[in-house]
Amino acid sequence: MGSSRYPIREPFAGGLEALIHTLARELTRRGHAVTLFAAPGSDPALPVRVLPLAEFKPSAAAMADRHAPSATWMAEHHAYLDLMLTLLHHGARDFDIVHNNSLHHLPVAMASALPVPVLTTLHTPPLPWLESALVLSAASSTFTAVSSFTASSWSHVVASTVIRNGVDLAAWSPGPGCGPAVWTGRLVPEKAPHDAIDACQRAGLPLVLAGPLHDRTYFREVIVPRLGDGVRYAGHLCRTDLARLVGDAAVAVVTPAWDEPYGLVASEAMACGTPVAGYARGALPEVVSESAGLLVRPGDLSALAAAIRAAAVLDRQVVRQHAERACGLTRMVDEYELTYRTALGPKLAA
Q: Which of 58, 95, 102, 291 has the highest CB neighbour count under 10 A?
């Protein structure tokens, strides 16, 4: 199971890391032997085998090339190259299938050389390096996408089966919803938490923000001046504390300034019975039903403020029921298991 550039551990760097952690645990619980390839510092308590990460420091002569990529890019490239060469030589001995959740191009580009089938899940809109690999090697892999929106955005280069993300409904359990509004996620411009602050102030609701500071300049210059007067930043929280915060919230505000490939924070909120108010961008209209939240035209703060007030009084039991039907972990992993069996084909029968 290939993963992202960030460690797979709490507090999670983003939705992709949280999803992989949850998927690995559930597959292991179901009796699968799971091996995880992930960044150093990943959760040692995960019940999986972790592949070592090859390290590489390019020479001064190589990095003197004025076209040389960054040291970070080279380290990631070397790690994936080592992984794919290891799978090329030993994959048939150690694995039945590779589930690639990374955003790197090499697992797709080299899939045809591997002795085991490769399933790649598309987690983002098109990326140039990955798109290049798909143009040349798409026939060598099986593809899924985390939403119909994401599948459509990649359809010019590859067809994919939609398997929407799922959350652990036991971990994200219903809360009382008597608290302020909440905004969760990476505090970066493309997630636009500043819009959530401005809309909540128009709506007359206090707001709590929680998530990692991936862009400290943005946080310092745009978010910090907006703190106070009913707005506070709770920090980067572990899942238990985050689920409690979301379950206590009257409404969850989701404000993407980009086309959200899925919107895991919306599913987490609805699993807590917390209705969603947000922008109708990307896959969010697939994730948030009319009974579980209200989505408005992106960038319209007045409409968002009205949606926040209206969503806050929705029936929390109905919101939770929608999450149970559409956003659960069991459904997602059932669908992945079916995809694994299909990809394995005659090998599974043998």
A: 102
